[in-house]
Write a structure and sequence with these properties.
The protein has about 130 residues and is α+β, with helices and mostly antiparallel strands. The model has no long low-confidence stretch (mean pLDDT about 90). Strand 4 and strand 5 form a beta hairpin. It contains 4 helices and 7 strands, in the order H-E-H-E-E-E-E-E-E-H-H. A 5-stranded mixed barrel has the order 2-4-5-7-6.
Length: about 130
Amino acid sequence: MRLKVIIGSILIIGFIIFGAYSFIESNVKYATIEEAKKTTKKVQIVGEWVRDRESYYDTRRHQFIFYLKDDNGDIVKVVHQGAKPNNFEIASHVVVKGRYVNGIFESQEILTKCPSKYQSADALKQYQN
């Protein structure tokens, strides 16, 4: 009987720790590029893909590399660990989650805002042209 209580208590404590860790990891603050440079914490940056700068997928390292410009006009090189999202080219805005390290924003997650879901048909035609 006492062994069951101990095992049950350990499982409950384990679930509480896992839940707290998951909550802290998912609670990521929005920041500008300038703010991301000043912190070592994980942040998320909203911006636009800089299309006139290089962007490519490194197949050896499985990294997608591109440049992002935030609303203040600051530009940062983003190295994403993973593949390029399918709708990346048509996205009106991009959100990257990660950390700024040694002049590069190391992204673990990319979210794209698809213009077709949030804009009128006329605005969508402008993106397609």
